[in-house]
Amino acid sequence: LPMLFTHRGLSGPAMLQLSNYWHTGETISINLLPNIDMTALLLAHKKSHPKQLIRTVVADYTDSGDDSNKLPKKLLAALQTHLWDDIKDTELANIKDDRLTELGATLNGWQLKPSGTEGYRTAEVTRGGVKTDEVSSKTMQSNMQEGLYFIGEVLDVTGWLGGYNFQWAWASGFVCGEVV
Ligand SMILES: Cc1cc2nc3c(=O)[nH]c(=O)nc-3n(C[C@H](O)[C@H](O)[C@H](O)COP(=O)(O)OP(=O)(O)OC[C@H]3O[C@@H](n4cnc5c(N)ncnc54)[C@H](O)[C@@H]3O)c2cc1C
Q1: Where are the alpha helices (DSSP H) in the chain?
Q2: In this structure, are residues 108 and 22 in contact, taking their beta carbons and an 8 Å threshold?
Q3: C-alpha of residue 179 to centroid of ligand 1, in Å
Q4: Which amino acids bring their CB within 6 angstroms of ligand 1?
């Protein structure tokens, strides 16, 4: 899923999806290049192209368009500053395997601890509240209070991004509407 860097923090479909599972204080791991084993690639290039720089290797997997399998070109410069500034002009042959291994692991599993979310102000889904086992799945009526019905996202049903929350709201509303 695509991820966005914004002036307020990380966003985009990947982050919205992840925020359904994340709890305050937890570390998240982001694979910036999910289709490539970056450690293996860097070590292989060290042997086959010892004079190359790290950015040249990574640049093969960047794109200025919106190919979500590739890193945006602008991000490469920022990552270099953040992750390998001290060896940015060092040829691969002169970089220790341990450092390349560490860098590859970071690119495939960047560890971040978010300081928080923006909360309900920008949330796309509430993650429920009413337990599903307290409601009839045939009528959506509460098992505890006759005549009280719950549908949609007020229930503990949270879909992935992609229309599943709408689907649930409409389907549960339809079922309820048939009996009320
Ligand atoms: C920005 C955004 C983007 C989203 N994009 C998607 C998407 O692409 N795909 C997807 O599947 N889901 C998406 N969702 C989630 C989806 O919109 C909700 O899961 C769905 O609308 C929930 O439907 P619902 O009927 O349970 O609640 P709601 O749609 O919130 O309806 C509740 C209604 O109750 C009314 N209400 C509240 N309190 C009272 C009261 N006291 N008296 C009378 N009326 C009251 C509210 O005004 C509201 O009209 C998105 C949500 C947001 C915020």
Answers
A1: 13-18, 38-48, 54-59, 73-83, 97-108, 164-179
A2: no
A3: 22
A4: 124-125, 152-154, 163-166, 169
CA 4 to ligand 1 centroid distance, Å: 24
Say which amino acid occupies 134: E
- What proportion of the chain, given as a percentage, has pLDDT over 70? 99
Q: Could you tell me the domains of the chain?
A: 32-108 (1.10.8.260), 125-179 (no CATH)
Average pLDDT, the chain: 93
Q: Quote the distance between the C-alpha of residue 101 and its chain's center.
A: 23
Who wins on pLDDT, 105 or 75?
A: 105
Using pLDDT thresholds of 50, 70 and 90, give the confidence band for residue 57.
very high
